[in-house]
Amino acid sequence: MSASKILVELFYDVVSPYSWIGFEVLSRYRNVWDIDLKLRPAFLGGVMHGSGNKPPGLVPNKFLYMTKDLQRLASYCKVPIQAPSNPFEAMFEKGSLSAMRFVTAVELHSPELTEQVSRELWRRIWSKDQDITTPESLQEAGEKAGLPADQLQRLLGLAVSQEVKEKLKLVTQEALNHKAFGFPLIVAHVDGRPEIFFGSDRFELLAHLLGEKWLGPVPQETGSKL
């Protein structure tokens, strides 16, 4: 990392559609703002439990609002989100523990592919209404992300190893140490202090803190480069 670049960490879980929006927008700004973006795959279920939070989707009126809000935000940010046919089952019954262990294995042993593997898992659950819990589902996501067959099999095996389980717990605890109560959690390290932003709608404030310009969710479309 360049000494001039500001470290920005993104804690996320592929079960969270708002995390997908935050992930795509920050990925677009990686070469626009003077930042070093570090992806931090973690387990949202652990953060919810550890912080004592409850999913807002369990409140009927909030669920109705979030469904519409997510559609508007996805359209604005140009992220192809299409809610699964049974969001409650996908998010709360099936969950994402096996998926995030797989992403953690990729991050530990093939970090250059973390971004694409994460994106393929989001596409499965939040665009194609497909499973992300079975080994077959994880294998298909890995194949579409470009993992060679032998490397993919090794990573699928590592996903159930104690090393990976402990790493996922550690990163999830790091998010809790930053007082996380949900995802996405953005941590910008400015002047030796971590500055915390929750959600995928605080980019104007993040830009202000970084001394950068917010050019909208798709900065390339402005024709401007900083």
UniProtKB/TrEMBL annotation:
Gene3D superfamilies linked to this entry: Glutaredoxin (3.40.30.10)
Domain of life of the organism encoding this protein: Eukaryota
Similarity section: Belongs to the GST superfamily. Kappa family.
Coiled coil: none
CDD domains linked to this entry: DsbA_GSTK (cd03021)
Upper taxonomic lineage: Eukaryota, Metazoa, Chordata, Craniata, Vertebrata
Pfam families: DSBA
Protein's name according to its UniProt entry: Glutathione S-transferase kappa
E.C. code: 2.5.1.18
Organism: Huso huso
